[in-house]
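Obj.: predict assembly geometry.
Materials: sequence records (below).
Method: joint structure prediction, all chains together.
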Amino acid sequence: MRRRLQLRHLEELLVRGLMLTSMLLVAGSLGSILWTVLVRGLPALTWSMLTQPPGGGYYLGNQGGILNAILGSLFLALGGSLLGLVLSLPLVLILENWHRHSAWGRFVRLSLDVLWGIPSIVYGAFAFSLMLAAGLRASLLGGMLVLALVELPIMARTMDEVLRLLPADLEQAALALGASRWQTALGVILRQAQPGMVTALLLAFGRGIGDAASVLFTAGYTDHLPTSLLRPVASLPLAVFFQLGTPYPQVQQRAYASALVLTLLVLAVSLGSRWVSARLGRHVIR
Amino acid sequence: MEHSTDPHIRIHNLNAWYGNHQALQQVDLDIPRNQITVILGPSGCGKTTLLKSLNRFLELDDNARLTGTVLIDGQDIYAPGQDVTAIRRTAGLLAQRPFPLPMSIQDNVAYGMRIHHLHPAGRISERVQHYLQEAGLWEEVKSRLQAPAGGLSMGQQQRLCLARGLAVEPEIILGDEPTSSLDPISAGHIERRLQALKEHYTIVMVTHILRQARRLADYVAFMYLGQVVESGPAEQVFGDPKEARTRAYLTGEF
Amino acid sequence: MRSGFRNPSASPSHANREQLAGASAWLVTLIPVLLGGGILLTLVIRSLPLLERSSLAGMLLGQEWAPSRGVFGFRPFIAGTAWVTTLAVLLAVPPCLLTALYLSEYAHRSLRLLVKPLLDLLAAIPSVVYGVWGMLVIVPWVADHLLPLVNTFAGHIPLLSTSNPTGFGILSGALVLAVMIAPFIIAVSCEVLDGVPRGVRQAGLALGATRWQVVKSGILPMALPGLFAGVVLGASRALGETMAVLMVVGNLARLPHSILDPAYPLTALIANNFGEMMSIPLYDSALMAAALLLLVIVLAFNMASTLILRRLMGRVHRSW
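Observations (raw structure tokens):
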């Protein structure tokens, strides 16, 4: 029974080799991306870069930094995620409590699935049309609204899955004590689902920082710090996009710095959501 | 009929762990050739673990660890350099729940023959018929060999799995409670086939049904909490058990 | 229905609150439905001016794009989207499938725990960062290393011959897209492979098959519909990708003839020109029509994938 040289064993070895190569390709791509962003962005990451808006136009040397974009992205993502939460949380609770198996519930879930697949640039075009018709200019508020719409199906879907995984007896236990459906929803179910919800929120936030296509039309761009909901606002992805294309190296530096800050923020959110779900998950019943 | 009198399988000082839990403790067992050996015991005693160590299925579990030797025909199957696929061919497995491969009845039986290149293509269908007959399924499926195997009843599927396993020409048949998911009639079928097959194969079977053990066993190993408490010819263990625990189990105390 | 029997001791206001809550609840569920319909409707309405002027066929098949002359032929952009997406999927599927197979069938459990955060990270990286990477790494590699090789050894093959020396083109776009959709395809494929019942592996391995033989003849046939649906979903993601592709694909509105030619996908069209939308008559209508076109294509892909999944998975599962 010692190993004889058989064709199928060679085939097995070949396939294993291909598999490892594939994994190296995937890991290598991630490494290459992070490395590139780091190598280009780190030299540009000075204190003034992070704490000042661009100084008077694109063409004035290395004056100023990317604070406009950093703050803009944070506000956009925060506003968009909170608005998205306000819309999706009741939606999901209602779906779970009243429409778990009904035909209407299935239809609503189908709509959410459809919405989930729509590219963010289509959301941008849609929102732009609405804003045009309503006479609104590109602004922070517009950007927040679009992000909320983009994130609505993502958050709803994630939270819906969290709720579906809940043990069925949990609701029964609360109802048996005489709680109304709303009380059960808020007091018991929400608590069990809390870590999943927070994770969904954080992931949406991360998406909101990085999404460019939807805010392209609706949030505009500016060199100024965000001061009002009704004025255009800068964002990190657009900062990268617009500033990379100029022939001025100092401006390109800002673009690389923006890319690095953006990547670090997204990394932080991604790791943070894992940490949160581990911490908050202490009380969750499995 | 000529039997070699040395044991077909010799298990020596076998220990197995799942994580920190020790499932087998210093198991020493000799399994005789061309007989039905039944491994008996209450649930959790390690019978399936012992069975799985005979065809190196234990290592499929990331958590499992094993020390000791298992000699099949004098060769340690755990020695480095051994070809696992050849070992698994030698000791075929009849599992608790029949699982046909996603192909036709004919292809199921032919699968093993093809991957081990046992027969030229021209002989395959004749061999398939032979093994289906050995498993007692031929009459029922001879007119629909190309039908998907999933369409058979449970009892038929288990016999198909038996035919499929025989087709790779093993020396040993391992049965992991092979009739527990079958109705009584199909179970009876399988039992009769196993009794017929022991003439040419060494059969090791795990069961928790005492009556089935009494019906089939030529040799018995009684296990409790990971140890082989007692082993020997069936008449001896059933008729005059030496250990108190064996006696207690046989009288249904646990 | 709800209020009376369950809480016989409840006050009337408790019951009323229940009913009010129920009614407002239903209204909330209207939101996604209205949103979906609203997007579709809005885009159609905004595209109407263009649709009234030229026929649908003329728009879809027209090869010329000259907004200042009022000529809007979408064919170059549809072709651009098709080329980039198809190549991206072709490039992504083999390594992703192999990775998923390794993680699901071969790897130790601990490896999977290690790899999952990496894949999550890859999926979280914003589109523009992929674009930057594409511009700084992929495009130069194509221009400086791949193009010379191709021109020397394979310049005569039509699919590979090009007059574009810049490296910005379909191949670069497809490479970047392939990495972007990789975590998604791997994750979905892992899920599908995990769903294949364990009995198949046991049955195959017990017969002395090698792991790869078990995968080939047992697991893949059962997983195939799900894997295919996952690839279709990945393709629809790639279709909708804007920023990364925009930055590396060349943005030239001509029908491509080779994978090294530049192209102009629909998403890039919309993103690049929104600024000039209002200055030329019918331009805004054309871009909205492009968005509508994109929407319809993505929806068609998503529906196809869901249908395949439902139909074929149902059949496979029923017989096993």
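Conclusions so far: The beta strands of chain C are 65-66, 71-72.
To do: check interface contacts against the pulldown list.
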